[in-house]
Structure formats: structure tokens, C-alpha cells
């Protein structure tokens, strides 16, 4: 992802958070208070409204902006999982490892396989994750050091996030109401560096600044004795 894309993601989050704290302002007020050029702000507001993160209302004189509280049935299911601590950790871990088996999740989140299996079934039913179906298994590629280092073909069931971008938007909208806010904030920062049009990239050959973000996330997920980087 190039620097312009990263900047756009961060700027949209800043605009969203500003509107959430200053509900009902019109565009020129937002532009002035945030010191964002009018045309740039208009571009981002249109994007946020298109994604149903904000709504606009015309009061006859100004178009004013508010946070959207409308939520689809699918988003309700995702939020139900995000509000459960173990399910939240599983979902966030997918943003790091991108493709996981039940065994992977059990190992790295230190949860009993039955517990992971329970959440996997629920998330499959809710459409949060999906199974990767490839004849003869899936060939693993290196991701983070010491996470999944298998190059052979595996017969395990492998899962990936169904719609990472939708989950990212929900994390932004509801992060203050979720448990483990530090982990959520770390993942949001990580996503903004690695996500492009909703598709997570392979984690490899990253710059030192990216490594520092990953280390921070590991420190939040694991006690010091288990940090792997």
C-alpha cells in the first residue's frame, strides 16, 4: 500500500471520530475545525456516507453530518462476535495470520480446541469467516515469523475472513464499546498499513516501522514470556 492510501484511511477515521464527537456540524464547520481543504473533506464525507458510516441531513440551509446507527442483520451478527472476548481475539488474529486452522488458533490464542471450535462454528454460521476449499488442501506461505511456517500441503480446514473491510468499519464505529481496546486500536493501526480495498496483504518483507506495530500487537496478545518476535 502506498503512503497516499494509508493517509486516506487515517484521515477518514479522524473525520469519523470527529463527527462522532461533534454531531450535526455542516461541512464548512468540519473543514474549518479540522483544517481540511473543503474539496478533500467532501471526497471523504461522500465515501463515509456511501459506506453507511455517516448520514447527512439537510436542514434547509446546511447539510449536516451525523454518525449512522443503522445496522444490517449481518453487521449485528458480526458485532455480537466482536463483543465476545474470545471471538474478538479470533477475528483480530485473522487480520494478522490471514488464514488459520482451528489448531493454529488454539495454539496461538491459548484456548482449548473445543472453545475455538465453538466460536468457529458460530462465525461460519454468521458469515464472518469462510472455509477455503481447495482440492488436496492449501499450500501455506510464510506470514509472520514463527506463526505458520508450513510449506507442505495440509489437509486441515483453513478459514479466512469473509469481509475484512466490513469488520474494519465496525471496529472503527464501535471500538469504544469493545473489550481489549488496546488490542483493537493496535489492529486498526495495523490494518491501515496493510489493507487495500478490503483485501489483507501477505505479511512479509515489511519495513522496520511495520515490525514495531506487529511487536506491539504481539505484546498485547501474549505475556512477555510468550512473545515470538
What are the SSEs and their pairings?
Elements: H1 3-21, H2 27-34, H3 38-50, E1 54-58, E2 63-67, H4 73-82, H5 85-97, H6 102-109, H7 113-126, E3 129-132, E4 138-139, E5 153-154, E6 158-161, H8 164-174, H9 181-194, E7 195-196, E8 199-200, H10 208-221
Order of helices and strands: HHHEEHHHHEEEEHHEEH
Shape: elongated
Largest sheet: 2 strands, antiparallel
Tell me the number of strands.
8
The CATH class assignment of the largest domain is Mainly Alpha
Number of spatially distinct domains: 2
Structural class: mainly alpha
- Helical coverage, percent range: 40-55%
Major sheet strand order? 1-2
What gyration radius follows from the Cα positions, in whole Å?
A: 19 Å
Average pLDDT, rounded to a whole number, is 74
Contiguous helical run count: 10
What is the CATH superfamily label of the largest domain? Winged helix-like DNA-binding domain superfamily/Winged helix DNA-binding domain
The CATH topology of the largest domain corresponds to: Arc Repressor Mutant, subunit A
Features:
229 residues, mainly alpha, Arc Repressor Mutant, subunit A, 2 domains, two-stranded antiparallel ribbon, 10 helices, 54% helix, elongated
Outline the structure in words.
The protein is mainly alpha-helical. It has two domains: 3-67, Arc Repressor Mutant, subunit A, CATH 1.10.10.10; 73-226, Arc Repressor Mutant, subunit A (Orthogonal Bundle). The chain is 54% helix and 11% strand. The strands form four sheets. The chain has a two-stranded antiparallel sheet. Strands 3-6 form a two-stranded antiparallel sheet. Strands 4-5 form a two-stranded antiparallel sheet. A hairpin with a 4-residue loop joins β1 and β2 (63-67). α6 (102-109) packs across α7 and α9 (181-194) packs antiparallel against α10. It is elongated, with a radius of gyration of 19 Å. The two termini are 23 Å apart. 25% of the residues are buried. The model is unreliable at 135-153, 196-210 and 223-229 (pLDDT under 50).
Amino acid at each position: 500500500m502506498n503512503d497516499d492510501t494509508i493517509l486516506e484511511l487515517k484521515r477518514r477515521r479522524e473525520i469519523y471520530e470527529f463527527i462522532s464527537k461533534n454531531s450535526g456540524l455542516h461541512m464548512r464547520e468540519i473543514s474549518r475545525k479540522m483544517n481540511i481543504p473543503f474539496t478533500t473533506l467532501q471526497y471523504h464525507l461522500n465515501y463515509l456516507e456511501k459506506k453507511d458510516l455517516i448520514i447527512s441531513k439537510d436542514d434547509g440551509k446546511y447539510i449536516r453530518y451525523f454518525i449512522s446507527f443503522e445496522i444490517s442483520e449481518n453487521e449485528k451478527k458480526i458485532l455480537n462476535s466482536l463483543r465476545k472476548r474470545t471471538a474478538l481475539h479470533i477475528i483480530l488474529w485473522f487480520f494478522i495470520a490471514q488464514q488459520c486452522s482451528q489448531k493454529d488458533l488454539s495454539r496461538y490464542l491459548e484456548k482449548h480446541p473445543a472453545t475455538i471450535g465453538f466460536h468457529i462454528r458460530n462465525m461460519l454460521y454468521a458469515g464472518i469467516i469462510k472455509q477455503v476449499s481447495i482440492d488436496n488442501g492449501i499450500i501455506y506461505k510464510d506470514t509472520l515469523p514463527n506463526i505458520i511456517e508450513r510449506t507442505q500441503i495440509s489437509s486441515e480446514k483453513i478459514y479466512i475472513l469473509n469481509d475484512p473491510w466490513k469488520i474494519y468499519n465496525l471496529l472503527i464505529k464501535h471500538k469504544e464499546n469493545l473489550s481489549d481496546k488496546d488490542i483493537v486500536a493496535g489492529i486498526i493501526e495495523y490494518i491501515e498499513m496493510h489493507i487495500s480495498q478490503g483485501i489483507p496483504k501477505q505479511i512479509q518483507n515489511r519495513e522496520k516501522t511495520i515490525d514495531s506495530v506487529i511487536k506491539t500487537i504481539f505484546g498485547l496478545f501474549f505475556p512477555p514470556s510468550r512473545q515470538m518476535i
